[in-house]
């Protein structure tokens, strides 16, 4: 089976993450959904976090349990401290522990700078940055409590922050979003430095343009697609699986020595393609 753009779905080693427990936030849509499914296919038990849309979350759970692993849908707003603490407590109670956090939940509230309300600014910072802080903090407490279990993984825990190419590429009309992702980069690197001696690996993925509901305007019409492809040297828009497979590899011991890095998965968008002909 392959996705519309041809990303193969049957390439994952099925035992790569066997015995590991993963939490993916915002996992009932887009990149989070594909990542939760890929982690399950690679043998992990998976908690599918969602904030709205329980039916979609249950569908993801069904898809994952078909691989013979455990999965459950937990509702929580990642920007709400009490809800995040309760979600992590429940996961430890019901799944025993957490080995992998994919802090993926995110959103956009776009506006020209002088039109942007404080509410739009704050909401995006709350979900995209504070949400990752809260989930990472609660997961880390459990990683530290449990320590390394060598039969499960060489690390005591893995945190993958879903950032964006916009942690490095400025983005007119999206100052809240770009600032939140710039914040994610420095949060991730600081946590990586602080937690590496405890055998906790913190890294980020920087997706380029991936076909999901968050950016429908950018790929739905032929003109929009053409404009977008001009920014992508590899000449295709990404699929959620492109990110999901990177997350599986990054969460696994195959990448045990990767600490504090952002892996850009962007078809070359961060290569400043405008300079291919100009400059
Ligand atoms: P999406 O809209 O399909 O998914 C976002 C998910 O986050 C949804 O499930 C949504 O319900 C959830 N969410 C939003 N607010 C939440 C909250 N308060 N608590 C819990 N969940 C919440 O979009 P996507 O493209 O799959 O985005 C996933 C992540 O990837 C985001 O962090 C986004 O910034 C990042 N990203 C996406 C692209 C892209 O091109 N699609 C590019 C770079 C980065």
Describe the protein's topology.
Elements: E1 21-24, H1 30-41, E2 45-50, H2 54-65, E3 71-75, H3 81-95, E4 100-103, H4 118-146, E5 157-162, H5 175-195, E6 200-207, H6 216-219, H7 222-229, H8 240-251, E7 262-265
Parallel strand pairs: 1-2, 1-4, 2-3, 4-5, 5-6, 6-7
Helix pairs in contact: 1-2, 1-8, 3-4, 4-5
The chain binds nicotinamide-adenine-dinucleotide (NAD).
Residues 25-26, 28-32, 49-52, 77-79, 104-107, 127, 131, 162, 164, 207, 209-210, 212-215 line the site of nicotinamide-adenine-dinucleotide.
Describe this structure in words.
The protein is of the alpha/beta class and 279 residues long. The chain has a single domain (21-268), classed as NAD(P)-binding Rossmann-like Domain (Rossmann fold, 3-Layer(aba) Sandwich). It is built from eight helices and seven strands; from the N terminus they run βαβαβαβαβαβαααβ. It has a seven-stranded parallel sheet with strand order 3-2-1-4-5-6-7, with helices on both faces. α1 (30-41) links the parallel β1 and β2. α1 runs parallel beside α2 (54-65), α1 (30-41) packs across α8 and α3 packs parallel to α4. The longest helix has 29 residues, at 118-146. The radius of gyration is 18 Å and the shape is globular. The N and C termini lie far apart (42 Å). The model has no long low-confidence stretch (mean pLDDT 95). Bound molecules: nicotinamide-adenine-dinucleotide.
């Amino acid at each position: 089976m392959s996705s519309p753009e041809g990303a193969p779905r049957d390439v994952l080693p099925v035992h790569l993450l066997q015995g590991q427990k993963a939490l993916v936030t915002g996992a009932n849509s887009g990149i989070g959904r594909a990542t939760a499914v890929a982690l399950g296919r690679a043998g992990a038990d998976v908690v599918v976090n969602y904030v709205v849309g329980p039916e979609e979350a249950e569908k993801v759970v069904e898809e994952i349990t078909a691989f013979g692993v455990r999965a459950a849908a937990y509702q929580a707003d990642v920007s709400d401290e009490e809800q995040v603490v309760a979600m992590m407590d429940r996961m430890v109670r019901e799944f025993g522990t957490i080995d992998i956090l994919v802090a993926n939940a995110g959103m956009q509230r776009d506006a020209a700078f002088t039109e942007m309300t404080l509410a739009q600014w704050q909401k995006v910072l709350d979900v995209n940055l504070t949400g990752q802080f809260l989930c990472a903090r609660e997961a880390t407490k459990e990683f530290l409590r449990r320590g390394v279990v060598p039969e499960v993984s060489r690390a005591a825990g893995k945190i993958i922050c879903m950032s964006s190419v916009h942690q490095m590429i400025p983005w007119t009309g999206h100052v809240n979003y770009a600032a939140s992702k710039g914040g994610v980069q420095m949060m991730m690197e600081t946590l990586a430095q602080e937690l590496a001696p405890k055998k906790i690996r913190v890294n980020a993925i920087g997706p380029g343009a991936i076909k999901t509901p968050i950016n429908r305007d950018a790929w739905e019409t032929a003109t929009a697609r053409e404009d977008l492809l001009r920014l992508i040297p590899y000449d295709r828009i990404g699929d959620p699986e492109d990110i999901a497979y990177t997350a599986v590899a990054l969460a696994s011991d195959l990448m045990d020595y990767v600490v504090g890095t952002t892996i850009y998965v962007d078809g070359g968008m961060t290569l400043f393609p405008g300079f291919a002909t100009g400059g």
